[in-house]
From TrEMBL, chain A:
This is ABC transporter permease. The chain crosses the membrane at residues 21-44, 117-138, 150-175, 187-208, 247-269, 289-308. Pfam families: BPD_transp_1, BPD_transp_1_N. Keywords: Cell membrane, Membrane, Transmembrane, Transmembrane helix, Transport. It comes from Actinomadura darangshiensis. It is a multi-pass membrane protein. PROSITE patterns: ABC_TM1. GO terms for cellular component: plasma membrane.
Length: 325, 286
């Protein structure tokens, strides 16, 4: 037992991420990105004729024909696919015929709002989620756990748009404390970020709880206790680092999802971010923009996934080169 | 959760199924009967849950909405589940290069943000009941493929499979008789956990106007009316939400219980710290 405790403390010092692993992981990310672009390319062709999707409604047959020529839709499919990929590699994610602007420009315009909301929501959910997760794990079987676990279950089963509507009902319509929609000032950030955080916090709480519970049964915790370390010290010094990886993973996923545009929440609160842009583009039948958003969100998702993977080695030195892929 | 407490969510689920099947008998009113004279009546009186902007009975619409929710969720879970399990078993059984390629594809689909992909697919196909089911199955099958793949790999290394192979049994027979029984329990647990999520997905798509089209009642579309009239008619936002919430809670509890029974160590919740694998949390649209 003592031997295990010592080896846990004296971790193997190795490079956080070996070059070979790094290359493999990067290759994987590029492959995933390539795959996503392919899926999106073919998704737009599910309906048969993308030209019809790409022109504004009510366009004449001649207009459609012109768009078809202009976009090279008369080319064979493989050539269209290659030119789409080529564009994507150069950061060209398509052109909005409705707004007459490149799709990337539209995304860049909305991204700050979405990022604002995503970061606020993530911070809130980490604070609440980790606290609840640690408390329910430490106080297993006590009243604290019995009081908090139902909250987690409720948080998980509440659909985002219902949480949002209830918050508006109570705080905007009922109490008239907070603005319900739109973006003016930091106060308007409050309700949408709480709505989003309620989802992520439940997920983070569950994972934190599971991870801490697993670590609690380890020998090094018993050793630390035997040495007379208090609960606070054990949590901060020992558990924090060892149970951080699953929590980090989930937090990363949550951030990635939020950055892709919290569609429902943004629509409810009329938040001018990517999610709302998605829905506006869908109803305007502005498909290149929707396509571009999906590719962009996937890229963010893949990128953050890659980052969290690389961070593992920094947080927990035991995760080293040559780990099972 | 022990066996007895598991009965509660199960009973709730059965209640929803009953409400869906017998909707025409249970609903006090025609869910689509427009009577402008009685628009936006508060709950109580002749209409237990009030009426909407077109004077339609909210209780009846919520009851009929159960049909859409359950139909879409069950359809999506079954379609995605069958396809995903088939793909996962094939990849696991064949192994080698084909298996690796298939699982790479699964990884790729898992790294597309689901809800955005769902929106794109429904928008392209055009919103309808069938398209929503197809689209949800299309974005969720990799979840099943993942677990089916690893369960197949596990089964393939077991003694009874080796024994069956040694007796000269054909591959399809071994897969059906020996591998599938190992895979199905895991897939069913994932399906149960997915059920609540699919209910939320359907409601979210309907809320955005991308689900079942009016006048068909769906919880999501009633809630969308609820948002429009939030300052004057709170009941439109409240009641379909409660129906949705209770159903999802019951499905989640049941799924958790099923998973715990399958894996007493309850460790499935913790994403493994394996490097270089693409993960996807079971996450509802934000």
């Amino acid at each position: 037992m003592a031997a295990i405790a010592i080896s846990a403390r004296r971790r193997v010092r190795a490079l956080p991420a070996g070059p070979r692993y790094l290359a493999g992981r990067l290759g994987q990310a590029v492959l995933a990105l390539f795959g996503v672009t392919t899926i999106v390319f073919f998704a737009l062709r599910l309906s048969g004729d993308p030209a019809r999707l790409l022109v504004p409604e009510g366009a004449s047959a001649a207009d459609i024909e012109r768009v078809r020529e202009q976009l090279g839709l008369t080319d064979p499919l493989w050539r269209q696919y290659l030119s789409f990929l080529g564009g994507a590699v150069h950061g060209d994610l398509g052109f909005s015929y409705v707004q007459n602007r490149p799709a990337t420009e539209l995304i860049a315009e909305r991204l700050p709002y979405t990022a604002n909301l995503a970061v606020a929501a993530l911070l809130l959910s980490i604070v609440f989620g980790v606290t609840v997760g640690v408390v329910t794990a430490l106080k297993r079987g006590r009243w604290q756990e019995r009081a908090l676990m139902p909250v987690v279950l409720v948080g998980q089963a509440m659909p985002a748009f219902w949480t949002g509507l209830l918050l508006i009902l109570v705080f905007s319509v009922g109490l008239r404390w907070l603005p319900s929609t739109g973006y003016d000032g930091p106060l308007s950030l409050l309700l949408p970020s709480v709505t989003l955080a309620s989802l992520s916090a439940a997920a983070i709480a569950r994972v934190t709880r599971g991870s801490v519970l697993e670590q609690l049964s380890r020998d090094y915790v018993r050793t630390a206790r035997a040495k007379g370390a208090g609960t606070g010290r054990i949590v901060l010094r020992h558990l924090a680092r060892n149970s951080a990886i699953p929590v980090l993973t989930v937090a990363g996923l949550e951030l990635a999802n939020l950055l892709g545009g919290a569609v429902v929440t943004e629509v409810i609160f009329a938040w001018p971010g990517l999610g709302q842009l998605t829905i506006q583009s869908v109803s305007a039948r502005d498909f290149p923009v929707v396509q571009a958003i999906v590719v962009f969100a996937s890229a963010v998702y893949i990128g953050i996934n890659l980052l969290t993977d690389l961070l593992y080695g920094v947080i927990d030195r035991r995760v080293t080169v040559g780990g099972a892929a | 959760m022990n066996r007895r407490t598991m009965l509660i969510p199960l009973a709730v689920l059965v209640m929803y199924v009953v409400a869906a099947v017998f909707a025409p008998l249970l609903a006090p009113d025609d869910p689509n009967a427009v009577t402008l004279a009685r628009r936006l009546l508060p709950p109580g009186g002749g209409h237990l849950l009030g009426t909407d902007a077109l004077g339609r009975d909210v209780l009846s619409r919520v009851i009929f909405g159960t049909r859409i929710s359950l139909l879409v969720a069950a359809g999506a879970v079954l379609t995605g589940g069958v396809f995903g399990v088939a793909v996962g078993v094939i990849a696991g059984w064949r192994g080698g290069r084909i298996g690796a390629v298939i699982m790479r594809l699964v990884d790729v689909v898992l790294s597309v943000p689901f809800f955005l992909l769902a929106i794109l697919v429904v928008a392209v196909l055009g919103p309808s009941l069938l398209n929503v089911v197809v689209c949800l199955a299309l974005v969720r099958w990799p979840r099943y493929a993942r677990v089916a793949h690893s369960a197949t790999l596990q089964a393939r290394g077991r003694g009874f499979v080796t024994a069956a192979t040694a007796t000269g049994a054909p591959a399809w027979w071994i897969v059906l008789r020996h591998v599938l029984p190992e895979v199905l329990p895991v897939a069913i647990v994932v399906g149960t956990l997915e059920l609540g999520l699919m209910v939320i997905y359907e409601a979210s798509l309907s809320f955005l106007g991308l689900g079942v089209q009016p006048p068909t009642a769906s919880w999501g579309s009633i809630l969308s009316d609820g948002q429009q009239y939030i300052a004057s008619a709170w009941w439109l936002a409240a009641f379909p939400g409660i129906a949705l919430f209770v159903l999802v809670l019951a499905a989640n509890l049941l799924g958790d219980a099923a998973r715990d029974r399958l894996d007493p160590a309850k460790r499935t919740e913790i994403p493994k710290a394996r490097r270089g694998t693409r993960r996807q949390a079971r996450r509802q649209p934000a």
